[in-house]
Amino acid sequence: MPTVEYGNPDLCVFSLPNPQPGQLLDLTWDTFGYGVERLSQQIKNVGKRLDADICFGINEAGLAMATFLASSRFSRCPIGYLRCNKVRDGIELDTNSFYPETAEASTIVICDFEVKHADVIGCITRQLRTRYPKAELYFAVFGAMTKDRDLEVDSFDDLTGAKIMRAANFEAIFIAATMSPPGIEPPLELR
After folding, report:
1. Most buried among 5, 46, 113, 187, using CB within 10 Å?
2. What is the secondary structure of 13-58 as a DSSP string?
């Protein structure tokens, strides 16, 4: 797993088997909470103290994750909100997105519910690097899609989004679970 210098590259992810292949897997609050706890433990054990200045949530599920992580791991740091709107050739950030003020060289954790093969996180990262030019960016994602349906991964490159996550040049990446196509649905369909 891409991580900080001298950091812990090993993540123990859990699998989200789908009893109905081809349909979104509906998650329970218990599973969602368990995944957020796993992310919290990974952050705690990255190999250095990670003090975030802002914890951003992408859409509503990412915002819920950011809220829990900001409270449990980051001393109740400010929470940002990135509302993504689908457009013809990708996404754009809604005007209702919220960007907290921070020091020039800040540490930012971005929380997203799932990463597949679209370059949503790359688009968001480019915009955040423009707004916060000297920031260190970290990425916490609940579910990462695997290339194979068996959900087994031997390396980071077994994930469909590995290339786009590497291209985003994060300081470290945290992943709670693996999932198969077409993906997962958060509790109450938070998007």
Report:
1. 113
2. -EE---SSTTSPEEPPHHHHHHHHHHHHHHHHTSSS----SEEEEE
